[in-house]
Amino acid sequence: MDERFNKEFEQLALPLLDPLYNFACWLSGNPDEARDLVQETFVKALKAFASFQAGTNFRAWMFRILRNTFLTSRTGLERRNTSQQDEDGYDEAVVSYETPELAIMRQADTELVQVSIARLSPIFQEVLLLADIEEMKYQEVAETLAIPIGTVMSRLARARKQVREHIVDALGKKS
Amino acid sequence: MNCKYRQKIALYADDELGPPEQQEVSGHLATCPECSAALLELLEMKKSVRLAGTRFSAPLELRRTVQEKLRVRKTPAAFWKWGLALACCLLVATLSFMVYSREQRQNTVIAGLVDQHIIALASEHAVDVVSDDRHNVKPWFQGKLPFTFNLPEVANSPFKLDGGKVVYQQQEAGAELQYEIRKHKISVFIFRSQDGSSKLVHDRGSSFTVEHWTEGGLRFYLVTDASSEDVHQLASMLQEANRL
Lengths: 175, 244
Prior knowledge:
The complex is a heterodimer of chains A (175) and B (244). Chain A has helices spanning 3-13, 17-28, 31-48, 58-71, 74-82, 90-95, 102-107, 110-119, 122-133, 138-145, 149-174. Chain A is mostly helical and 175 residues long. Chain A has two domains: 1-79, Rna Polymerase Sigma Factor, Chain: A; 96-175, Arc Repressor Mutant, subunit A (Orthogonal Bundle). In chain A, helix 2 (17-28) packs parallel to helix 4 (58-71) and helix 3 (31-48) packs across helix 4. A seven-stranded antiparallel beta sheet of chain B has the order 1-2-3-4-7-6-5, sandwiched between helices. In chain B, a hairpin with a 2-residue loop joins strand 3 (172-181) and strand 4. With 244 residues, chain B is α+β, with helices and mostly antiparallel strands. Chain B has a single domain, classed as MucB/RseB, C-terminal domain (Phosphorylase Kinase, domain 1). Helices cover 50% and strands 21% of the residues of chain B. The interface between A and B is large, with 51 and 41 residues.
C-alpha cells in the first residue's frame, strides 16, 4: 500500500472523525464503545479503500461501515433484537401531520431535544441523525443504511413526528 | 388539513424537490398560511435536532489513536518501498559506473594501441624480431613476457608475418606482432587478462579498424586499415590458434 494511497484516505476520512464519533455515540449510547467502533471503522475502511470506487459517496461509505460494525457488535445485536417496530403507517404519519405548534417547538431546549432523539428506536434514530445532523440527502441515507429511498422518507417522517410529540407532550405537562 | 401540497413540505424543507417543483411549492407557500406554518415548524425542529444531535466530539486521544493506526500501516510499507527504491538506484548507479569505467579504460587502451600502430607504420624498425616464421617469432618472446601465446600458420593464407616486439600498455608488458596483407599493415597486440572470455568487438571509432576479444586468459587487439573481411579472417585464425 503506497503512501499516496494512505494520504488520500487520510484526507477523505479524517474530516469525518467527529461526525462518525457523534453517530457512534448516539448508536451505542456509550463513549467507550463509540471509540472502539470508530477505530474499527477506520481500520476496516483503510483495508477496503482499494475497493472503494472513486466518484461514489465516500461519506455514505464510511457511515455504512460504522453502522455495519455497530450492528454486528454485542450492543448492536441487542438493540436490533429489541427494537423491531412496526413500520406500517407511513402514509398516515405524513398525511395526519397536525397543525404545527411553532411556539412550543421554540421553547424546546437542547436537553429536551436530546432526550427526544435518544427515546427513538434505532431505525428511526439513525435516519434522523443522518438526515438532520449530517444533512445527508435521502439518496445518501438510503446508501448508508442500504434501504430504499421510500423507507428513508417513511422513517424520517415518523422520527420527526415522534420527536415533536415528545417535545409537545413534555412541555405541555410542564405548563 | 388536506392541502395537496402538505406532503411536499418535508421534501421542500429537506431540499429534495427538483427546481420546477421547488418553485411551485414556493409559490404555494406564499398563499397558504397552514403550509407556511408547517414549514416553519419543521425547519425549527430540524435546527433543534441538528444543534442537539451534534453532541459528541471525538476525544483528542481517539484522534491520535486513529492517526497512529493509519501511520503504523503506512510506515513499514513506505520504509521498504523507499529503501528498495534507494537500493535499486544505488545498484543501477554502481553498475553504470562500473560499465562506464570499464568502457573508459577500454577506450583509453584502444586509443593507445592505435597510436602504437601508427608509430609502427611510421617506423623503419617496426619490429625487434624480423621473421615470417612463427616458430622464430614466438620463441623470441620467451623470458620477455610473463605469458605465452600461439601464432597461426599463415603460409597458405594472404597474410604475411613481419615479426614482433615487446610493447607496454598502462605499465603492462605485451606482444606486438606485425602482419601484412596486400600492402596493409596489421598490428596484433596481446596482453594478459584477468577477466573471463569476451566476444569479439568490432570498433570503427577512428579511421582504423580495431577488433578485440579475450580468450584463454589473453586479451587480443587487432588494429589496421585493412578491410573488415581481412580483419575477421586474421582474428579467426588467432582465435583458433589460441583456443584451449
